[in-house]
Design brief:
The complex is a heterodimer of chains A (about 260) and B (about 350). Chain A has about 260 residues and is mainly α. Helices cover about 60% and strands about 0% of the residues of chain A. Chain A has helices spanning about 25-45, 55-80, 90-95, 105, 115-135, 140-170, 170-185, 205-220, 245-255. In chain A, α1 runs antiparallel to α2 (about 55-80) and α5 packs antiparallel against α6 (about 140-170). Chain A is globular and about 55 Å long. Chain B has 13 helices and two strands. The chains are: A mainly alpha (about 260), B mainly alpha (about 350).
Chain lengths: ~260, ~350
């Protein structure tokens, strides 16, 4: 598709703030990336024992484990940056949905396998340049996390891109489903690149890389890049879809039922 | 196999990992010895087969084997593979709600291991001339079974601990002797699987240890799970020896090496000590050391219940099968797309090469 028809970058449509730039201190930034990875892991793990092939069950668990591993490093570090004594579990289990800073893309329901692959493809095409940039940033801890996570993201991107091509250029039914999945999830990618010049890595700088990857793979997959101008946002400000609260209710239920217990 | 609690089929770590390693060493030694000595290569296939078995060598896929040996192995390996795949469901039931991120990661990796075990075992069965697709069909149509233990529900987080400690523990007790099974590919798969199962068992034990030393509510949760899983775990070893079909032939072929009751006893003896260390009580008032037998006396599980569960009327049989069938049916369009894409690529490459 045309690399010229660059989608217009939108400011987050936050209902709580008028500023287009979310809070960009290292804590908020690290927390947002940790929340992206955690919520992505939670969704991917829902596929366990349900994947279309046994090999794919293993692959999806692998990717979920990578996301969970990155989430744990990021949330632990966010807790240190905050300096209020919150560890990874306090951050994961004891915040409500309005305090989560993940993008909306990761919290969307899994849908069919095509929707899951569209979500993973867009997420990995964003996380790969993000972690790569992070690996070279001035914060040593973030650089170490980025260095580890970018290798994993490269695999996630390969895996998702392979499925996007297989489904896009597979059968009539798979093509229809894959195109519908791309159309349905595409609006949620814009939020990922909202400018935040003060952050350790400004997400706006990652957009060109993302667009190049997406354009190539969608073309190989015989899929069309949507032109929708709708750009839902708000995740970075804690204004989520209706889905996140349910996801967290399930994730947090046991931990919250036993306050102070060790596991 | 996971257990012997299948439909009428024959058949943690108390030094079990050491036995796995010994079996692995024996396998290597046997391979190094080759078959030259005890086994006459020129003999007719039937006596060659018998000689290989007698010499504790391995039968390999290219070797002649009696049709009944092949059928027995296919059924046993397939049912073991099905057990790994269906077993992902009760364990996977707690991934989304695991109470800490560390426990979530360990559990997710464990359930992933089970999928891996299923894959190696289907591959081992395929060496006997049957395809994975055929075996999956046999499972989905109910003509082959999986271990009945997975027809029980995992109701609390403590069940994840108990499944690791008791169910993986019983699976290891069953599987360690299979590391010396006469069929090479199965023996080798079992060595790999047993090593991972012993991690699972240790992780389960560790979950229970934490709960048993936690808040009163956590301790009660752990005891409740032990109370519910103890007898079904004992039933994993299958019916008592007197009622077990297939066993004698499997023993002669060195597929099976110990009887159901011998393995069950070994499991009980291993668990008593571990339960004490955990500070949890095994729900058996009849459990006591018998100095004459040098083993614990214990109450047998309810074998009528085992038969009901095997015949399809356990708490979760319908749910487990519906889950498997739904995943398979919902994945059909994806598998078709992958095949269509691969065919297009192959045609494309032919054109490029031409
Ligand atoms: Fe297993
Ligand atoms: Fe296991």
């Amino acid at each position: 598709m045309s690399a010229r028809s660059e989608p217009v970058l939108r400011a987050p449509q936050s209902r709580t703030k008028t500023s287009p730039v979310s809070a960009s201190g290292p804590f908020e930034f690290t927390l947002a990336l940790g929340d992206d990875a955690l919520v992505a892991a939670q969704r991917l793990a829902e596929w366990t024992s349900r994947a279309p092939e046994m090999e794919e069950d293993v692959a999806l668990s692998n990717i979920a484990l990578d996301q969970l591993g990155a989430a744990r490093l990021l949330l632990t570090y966010a807790g240190e940056l905050e300096g209020a004594g919150r560890d990874e579990d306090a951050l994961a289990y004891l915040r409500d949905d309005r305090e989560f800073r993940n993008c909306l893309l990761v919290e969307l329901p899994n849908g069919d396998f095509a929707v899951t692959m569209a979500k993973l493809f867009f997420l990995a095409a964003y996380q790969l340049p993000l972690y790569t940039a992070l690996a070279g940033c001035g914060d040593e801890q973030l650089a170490a996390i980025g260095g580890k996570a970018r290798k994993e993201s490269a695999y996630h991107l390969d895996h998702a891109a392979l499925w996007v091509r297989r489904l896009g250029d597979g059968t009539g039914e798979s093509h229809r489903r894959m195109q519908a999945a791309v159309d349905g999830t595409w609006p949620y990618v814009h939020e990922l690149f909202a400018a935040d010049p003060a952050a350790p890595v400004d997400p706006a700088t990652l957009r060109a890389d993302f667009d190049a990857t997406v354009t190539t793979v969608l073309a190989e997959a015989t899929l069309t890049r949507p032109e929708s101008g709708w750009a839902p946002a708000g995740g970075r400000d804690g204004v989520h879809t209706e889905h996140l609260s349910y996801l967290l209710a399930e994730m947090q239920v046991l931990h919250r039922a036993h306050p102070g217990a060790r596991w | 196999m996971y257990g012997n609690d299948f439909a009428a089929v024959d058949a943690p770590d108390g030094g079990l990992l050491g036995q796995v390693e010994a079996a692995e060493a024996a396998l290597r030694a046997a391979a190094a010895r080759g078959r030259g000595g005890a086994v006459a290569a020129g003999a007719d296939p039937e006596s060659y087969f018998a000689d290989v078995i007698n010499a504790d060598q391995k039968i390999e896929p290219r070797d002649w084997m009696p049709e009944a040996y092949r059928r027995t192995l296919i059924r046993q390996i397939a049912q073991h593979a099905h057990s790994e795949i269906v077993g992902m469901q009760p364990e996977g039931n707690w991934i989304s709600r695991a109470p800490s991120l560390k426990r979530k990661a360990i559990l997710l990796a464990k359930v992933q291991d089970e999928a891996g075990h299923g894959l190696y075992l289907y591959a081992a069965a395929e060496t006997l001339g049957v395809s994975r697709d055929e075996l999956v069909d046999l499972l989905l149509s109910g003509r082959q079974k999986y271990s009945s233990i997975f027809n029980y529900p995992t109701l609390t987080w403590a069940d994840v601990g108990v499944v690791g400690w008791l169910v993986d523990g019983a699976a290891i007790v069953n599987q360690v002797p299979l590391c010396r099974c006469s069929y090479g590919p199965y023996a080798r798969a079992m060595i790999r699987v047993c090593k991972e199962e012993s991690f699972h068992q240790r992780q389960g034990y560790e979950i229970l240890h934490t709960l048993a030393h936690g808040t009163p509510a956590q301790k009660a949760m752990a005891q409740d799970a032990v109370d519910r899983w103890w007898y079904p775990s004992l039933a994993m070893f299958g019916p008592p020896d007197g009622d077990s079909t297939h066993s004698a032939q499997s023993m002669a072929w060195k597929i099976k090496r110990f009887s159901n009751d011998e393995l069950r006893q070994r499991f009980v003896d291993m668990c008593v000590q571990q339960a004490e260390t955990l500070g949890l009580t095994l729900p058996d008032p009849g459990l006591r050391w018998n100095p004459e037998r040098q083993a614990y006396d214990f109450t047998q599980p309810d074998y009528d219940e085992l038969m009901r569960v095997i015949s399809g009327d356990g708490p979760c049989n319908r749910q487990r099968m519906a889950h498997r069938r739904r995943a398979h049916a919902e994945g059909a369009w994806v598998r078709e797309a992958a095949a269509a894409y691969a065919a297009k690529r192959a045609r494309h490459e032919e054109r490029v090469a031409a």
